[in-house]
């Protein structure tokens, strides 16, 4: 299924490393952090979510997707970078 594969790839290669959620487990994620790539991946996820209920369920079930987004938002607010993209 296309949305499932896309969500998984974007989550594993962009959202999780850039969010910093597992930075203690994998310090190389900090080297891969790219805010612009994160925003672009998030836009793709947003577009996928408009495809319907089944796709939104796939997104909710995608491992670490929601956790990485929540972590990124909390980190951004804590760092007072709320004006960032």
Notes on the protein architecture:
The structure is a single chain. The protein has helices spanning 2-19, 28-32, 35-49, 53-61, 65-78. By secondary structure, it is mostly helical. It has one domain (2-78). The relative contact order is 0.20. The model has no long low-confidence stretch (mean pLDDT 83). One of its GO terms (biological process) is protein localization to plasma membrane. One of its GO terms (cellular component) is plasma membrane. InterPro entries: ARM-like, ARM-type_fold, Plakophilin/d_Catenin. This is Plakophilin 2.
Produce a short descriptive summary:
InterPro entries: ARM-like, ARM-type_fold, Plakophilin/d_Catenin. The protein has helices at 2-19, 28-32, 35-49, 53-61, 65-78.
What keywords describe this structure?
85 residues, mainly alpha, 5 helices, 0% strand
| Beta-strand fraction estimate | under 5%
The sequence of SSEs as H and E is HHHHH
Q: Which bin fits the share of residues in helices?
A: over 70%
Q: How widely separated are the two ends?
A: 30 Å
Give the overall silhouette: globular
User: Using DSSP, what is the number of strands?
Assistant: 0
Enumerate how many helices there are, as a single number: 5
Mean pLDDT: 83
- Taking pLDDT < 50 over at least 5 consecutive residues as the criterion, the unreliable ranges are none
Oligomeric composition of the shown chains? single chain
For the record, the count of structural domains works out to 1
Largest sheet: none
Radius of gyration over all CA atoms, rounded: 13 Å
Backbone structural class: mainly alpha
């Amino acid at each position: 299924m296309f949305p499932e594969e896309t969500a998984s790839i974007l989550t594993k290669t962009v959202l999780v490393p850039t969010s910093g959620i597992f930075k203690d487990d994998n310090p190389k994620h900090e080297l891969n952090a790219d805010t612009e790539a994160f925003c672009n991946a998030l836009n793709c996820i947003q577009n996928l979510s408009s495809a319907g209920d089944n796709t939104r369920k796939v997104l909710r079930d995608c491992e670490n997707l929601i956790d990485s987004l929540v972590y990124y938002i909390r980190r951004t607010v804590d760092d007072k970078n709320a004006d960032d993209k």
